[in-house]
Amino acid sequence: MRKNFIIALLSVGFIIMLWTPPVFPQAYARVKGSVTSEKGIPIEGARIILIFSEDGAKTELTTNEKGEWKLMNLRAGAWTLGIMADGYQPKNIDLNLSALKDIPPIDIVMNPIPKHPLSKANELYQAKKYAEALQEYQKVLAENPDMHQAYERIGLCHFRLGDPDNAIKAFKLMLEKEPQARNVLLNLCAIFLEKGNLEEGMKYFKQLEEATITDHSIFYNIGVLLFAKEQMDQAIEYFQKCAARDPNYVDAYYQIALAYLNQGNNEEAKKNLQKIIELAPGSDKAAQAKEILDSLE
Known about the structure:
By secondary structure, the protein is of the alpha+beta class. It folds into 3 domains: 28-110, Immunoglobulins (Immunoglobulin-like, Sandwich), CATH 2.60.40.10; 115-213, Serine Threonine Protein Phosphatase 5, Tetratricopeptide repeat, CATH 1.25.40; 216-297, Tetratricopeptide repeat domain (Serine Threonine Protein Phosphatase 5, Tetratricopeptide repeat, Alpha Horseshoe). It is 52% helix and 16% strand. It is built from 12 helices and 7 strands. The chain has helices spanning 2-19, 119-126, 130-143, 149-160, 164-177, 182-194, 198-205, 216-228, 232-245, 250-263, 266-279, 284-296; strands spanning 28-37, 47-52, 58-62, 68-75, 77-84, 91-97, 106-110.
C-alpha cells in the first residue's frame, strides 16, 4: 500500500514537471559606435540617448576621449538612438536590436551647426575691432543684400569710430527695412541729441515708448538742449526723468537746481543741491553745490 502511494506521488510530480512551462533567461542585446566630426576628429562628451519604443525606457551615456561608446544588456527590440554634441546638429536613428545577432558598429559623423553670416563680424565688434568689423559687415551685406540687419551694425561701427554722419546714414537704411527697429530709433535719437539737434532727435524719440527707455542719458541730453532753449519747465521735466532712471546721477540734480534757480525758485533749487551733497559728498559737484547754497543764504 505504502509503495503504491509513493509511486502515485512520483507520478503526480512527473506530470507537474511535464506541464510546467519552461523559463528562458531574458534575451539581451548590445550595441556600440563612435561619434566624429566631418574631419574625422573624435567628439568627446557627445550624448548618446537610447529610448526603447515599447515602453519609453531611456538609457543615456557619453562618448569617451576617442569618441567611442558601448552599451550592453539592452532589451531586444526597436530603439531610437539620439546623438547630441555642442556645436553640432543633433541626429536620430531608428534601431532594431537582436539578442541573437550583433549589429555593426554605429559610426556617426556630426555636421556642425551653420554659423550665422554675421558671426565673424559680430566677434570682431565684441572685441572692439570696429574698423575690421565694419569691413566684414560691409562684405556680408555685399554678398547678402537682403541681410538688412547688417545696416544697424554698420551704423554702430561708424559711431564707435567717431563718424556719426555715416552712422546716421546706415541707421536710416535700416529703418527703411524695419521702421520700428527700437535700438535704431534710440541710436538715431541719441546721435542727433549729442549733435545738438533737438528737433531731429525728438522725431525719433517720439516713435518710442518712453516707459521702455532705460538709458538716462537720453533724457539728460534732451533736458540740456531744452535748457539751452530756455524752456525751463520742460528741461526740469526731462532732468527729473533722467534722475528717475538713475537716482545716483548727480548731474541730473545739478541741472534741475540750475533750472529752478533760473526760474527764481530757490527752495526747489536748494533741495536738489542738498541731494548732490548727500549722494556724492566728496565730489566736485558737491563742492559747487555748497558754494551755490552758501550764496543763497
